[in-house]
Each structure stands twice: as structure tokens, then as C-alpha cells.
Amino acid sequence: MKAKKLGVFDLFNIIIMLFLTVITIYPFWHVICGSFSDGGRMMAHKGLILAPLDFNLASYKAVFSNPRIISGYANTLIVVIGGVALNIVMTSTAAYCLSRKNVYWNGLIMKYIVFTMYFGGGLIPSYLLISRTLHMDDSLLALIIPGAIGTYNLIIMRTAFLQVPESLVESAKLDGASHLQTLIKVVTPLSLAAISVITLYYAVGHWNSWFSAAIYIRTRGKHPLQLILREILINNSTSSMSQSTGMEDQYFIGETIKYATIVVATAPILIAYPFLQQYFVKGVMIGAIKG
Length: 291
Description:
CATH superfamily of the domain at 66-235: MetI-like
Number of helices: 13
Distance between the termini: 42 Å
CATH topology of the domain at 66-235: MetI-like fold
CATH class of the domain at 66-235: Mainly Alpha
Number of strands: 0
Strand content: under 5%
Helix content: 55-70%
Structural class: mainly alpha
Shape: globular
Order of helices and strands: HHHHHHHHHHHHH
């Protein structure tokens, strides 16, 4: 079999894609190398960093010795695990109901749901609802319950459920299956690609969220990891993690601590991507099919 000859257009595309790949990956590589570098060498170095400068783990030791990082991790895991579980249950249940053709006012309900994508009550009504009415102020529940269903994710999952052959659903009903059994045993297994992608969307959203925590969470021990990372990067508050070093060294190691904190805060969600990659393209493309 002869190899396909590359044309000028193909070669141009390859060069462009390689360039985009490099400028996308390098910032991540720069942060990783900086986190493993000596603070003094890092500050003195000018130009690109292709490898750690005087490799050491001082920054990571400082990060993991900070109790706020540990508590932030714990709080974030609670929000991510609890939030994603609630998201998938609520979204799949709503999507199943809205994907059934015999539901009254199905189209009207969907139009109302889509309306919420473009118009919202605003920050002040949301704050009054969550803090005064639902009494979830200064609680991790304020980061989980209000976002139980994402409209875009609901639309994708409903579209995926619509692709399940109606004959399978009817067969399950003839066998005496309830709607819940049909959802769990018939519809869900056939929609794993879409569910996996939506799970990733929800997990990334919860992991990266800091704004809601900044509004509703007042106790520092309940802060999620991203809010702590924001405080470190914006307020330059790394002194508590570098107290064992001298004043001059504190300034140098403070910069590498920022990089180490970024790596620690983003690595888990980056590790999750390869495991869901096989479902990603298929799951996303389902949303492009009109249901």
C-alpha cells in the first residue's frame, strides 16, 4: 500500500497544528518545571524554561505541609463527589422524563428550560434565596444544590436518551419494568458516552469553581482548593508555607510555591481526561443531533 503524498495544504495544516500545540502545552510545561525548580535560579533565569532549574521538591513540601491546602482538597473532593452524584441523578432523571413522547407539555417545558440559559434572576436574588430562604449560607451545600442541573448538560443527555430505540423501552414495559428500572437498566447503559462526558463537564465545573465559595463560604476551614489557590496567586500569601526559610529565601521560594500549588490544584482533573477521552468525541457529537 502506497503512502499518501502530502500536499502543500496538508503540510501547512500540520505546521499550524504543531505551532498551536506548542503554544498550548508550553505554559503547562513552564509551570511544572517552575514548581520543581530552585527559587533563586527561577527568579534569576530569563527566557524559556525547558527543564527544572536545580531540581528540588522544596515547594511541594511547603505546599503539602500547609493545613489549608489539605483542608481545601478535602472540601473540594466533597463538593466534586457529592455534586457530581447529585448532578447525574437529577439530570438523567429529568432528561428521561423529557425524552418520553407521552409527557404532557413536553415542548413547552423544554422551551422554559432553554429560556433559563439566556435569562436569570441575577446575583442578589440568588444570594437571598440561598442564604436567607434555604439557609445554606456558610455551608458546602450552597456549592452543590443550586447547580444540581445544568441546562446545557440536560439538553445533551435528553438528546442522547432520544437516540435509544423506542422498541427497547416498550419491551422493558411489557416485561413489567418501571420507569426507574427502564432508566437504569435500558436507557443508561446505552447512553454511557454522553453520561461520561457530562460527568466530566460537571466534575470540571465543581473543581474549578471558586466564585460561589467566595460569596457563600465565610469559614476559612470550609474553603475549597480553588479559592485557596486564588488567594495565594492574587494576594501573594505564600509566607505561611515558607516560614522555615530565611527572609530572602522566602521571597524566592514563594514564586515556586505558586507554581507547585497550581500543579497540585489542576493535576487531578487533568489526570481524569485520558480515562474519559474515548467517550468524549462521541458524547459531544450527540448534542449536535436534533432530538
